[in-house]
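Reopening: Twitching motility protein PilI still failing for me.
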Amino acid sequence: MSQRESLRAFQARLAERLQAAQARPLAAQWLAVQAGGRACLLPLPQAGEIFPAAAPQPVPYVKPWFLGVANLRGRLCGVIRLAHWLADSPLPAEAGQPSEEGSHLVALGEALGVNAALRVDALAGLRSGSAFTGVLHAEAVRPPWLGACLADSAGRAWQVLDLQALAADPAFLHIAA
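Support: Ran it again with your exact input. Result attached.
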């Protein structure tokens, strides 16, 4: 009988701990990255695994921001140069491929249903909501995947990217040149 009571006590303690863990806010909400001189925040629930940048296999007749495809742990993913995607105009032809030193691939979460990875210039760590002091003014017209622009304590602007909205954007899904 004592084993049965200890099992019930264990189950009760476990249930309490699970409830407490669910009630606590996430310590980190975003993955901070650098892309083309811009500081961006990727929501952790939407981001997937991080990989060291490897040269993707080029694909012909695609838009300039689509670098090619890469095998990421057995999953064939399209690789998008985030800095180029965020830019208003295409990169000049002489710019060529940026250096891969320090760059990483951030796969989109599997729940988004798109086999894609964003090539970022550098990782800047994890950030929580408490790391930011306020919201900067947003542009009047902007794509739905472009979230709020947050300011940190040093006054640096961080652009939030909604990866779920990005994965549903027809312009992002249409890679043919």
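The helical segments are 2-23, 82-86, 163-168, 170-173. If you still see a failure, please send the error message rather than a screenshot.
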